[in-house]
Amino acid sequence: MQIKKDAIIKKRSAKSGLPPGTLIHIGDKKMETTRITLIDYDESHFIEKEVKLVEESFPFKDKPTVTWINIEGIHEIEIIDKIGQYFGVHPLILEDILNTEKRPKMEDFETYIYVTLKILKQINNNDKILSEQISLIIGTNFVISLLESKDDIFDPIKERIRNGKGHIRKMGPDYLAYSIIDAIVDNYFVIMEKFGEKIEVMTEGLVKNPTPGTLKSLHDTQRELMLLRKSVWPLREVVNNMLRGESTLIDDSTLIYLRDVYDHTIEIIDVIEGLRDMVSRMFDIYLSSTSNKLNEIMKVLTIIATIFIPLTFIVGVYGMNFEYMPELKWRWSYPFIWVIIISVSILMLNYFRKNKWI
User: Per CATH, the architecture of 2-288 is what?
Assistant: First the structure.
């Protein structure tokens, strides 16, 4: 499994020298055009449509129903600016929305709550994982979600709204925001399961046949887990602030659900820390395995060298070419020396086996 190779320290040179609140998109452009969908509902009413202009969503701001405005693709600054102006979002928050490298956080502005999180996405069912930013603006009767690209993890929420299943049509925008955060956290479990499976496979290969490629995979996995931790760890603080805050935008009936998300967040963090410890131990296993492998090789080479020591002595003696060496003129001297050499080799091998050295 491989996460997109993001830099550990992000480059933000595009913002250098500009005044606070200047709207500049920082990050990769994930979609060609921005897509805006709108869902408006209450217990007995439901509307879902895709709007071409962001202004079409403005009349729903003051309706008593709950409105979910979902914006996929945040690179079009004009759309973000219009959203901010009409819904009264502070320019610094708009700046944070456009900066896709922001740390997950939550801020309460009394009239709305701003939350930014990270979505982990698996690409085409392969090992590549991308981390993308999602921003939520939670108002008195609306939720605006702003994503870098299209994501399917919210489809079950939309389906529950369409079918009126569960509590979502009976609850307010705070419950909708909870449902979105819960879907993101549940997706973390899926990613962690795949990471766990990958590490198990790596552990088996590590013990059987460690290679330089294995060491590279360990370094890549360690980096991936560090980036995962960076995306997930601040989420605990975000949910905790929502729980302990005194915002009138979050109803008491929603707090129990947020506590459940908080518990799941702690569980995810524990899983990540466990995987990081496992990878650290795998480095030790790699060193031990390569050391054992080297020892086995050295043992074989030592046995071979030890066998050849007496053989080298024998051929050395009879290779001195002295004139008075009667064995050299004996007719059977050559085969006799071979018998001695082979016998010595066999005796030494049997001795090594007897002592369980081989």
Answer: 2-Layer Sandwich (3.30)
